[in-house]
Write a structure and sequence with these properties.
5 helices; alpha/beta; 7-stranded mixed β-sheet
Amino acid sequence: MVLSKVKLRKDLLAHRKNLSKEICRLKSDKICFNLQSIPEFIQAKTILAYFSFRKEPDLSYLFNKFSDKKWGFPRCIGKSLSWHCWQVGDELIKGTYGIKEPMADSPMISNDEVDLILVPAVACCHQGYRLGYGGGFYDRFLNKDSWNSIPTTIGIVFDFAYLPQIPVDPWDIKLDGVCTEIDYLEKK
């Protein structure tokens, strides 16, 4: 039996909250190691990512090590995400939900320049679907008509949140892969 999205989200966030900072750092470092060795990451020039929040896997190692790549991060504008350039050393602000965001005047990134999207998630399943926080920001973003073709999308979760099955709604977008501290799993 599959749990409801609300119950599953609550249970997984509680589990993640109980992880120590040291365990989160170790697991995050392993995720970064796995990501930097996959062809989609190696070949990408422009990558959309996220700043870790509430003990999400922390990808900041990649932002520092791969400063030759163009990094984009979301700003929440109403119920949508806009993507802005950011590089190590640029100022950040706390957005609407307390998540770090680039400054409003930082250059925007257009959809046609994006090669790879590293998608935060509460959970991902073996079929490639993700469970988000319930706001629908990434579902709306990935369903936009403005994409000529959606770039490679990789869900980022700790291994305990990589599940055989999660509830899926008609608007949920299947990801191209999932990366955990154990492995990168392609879903194409």
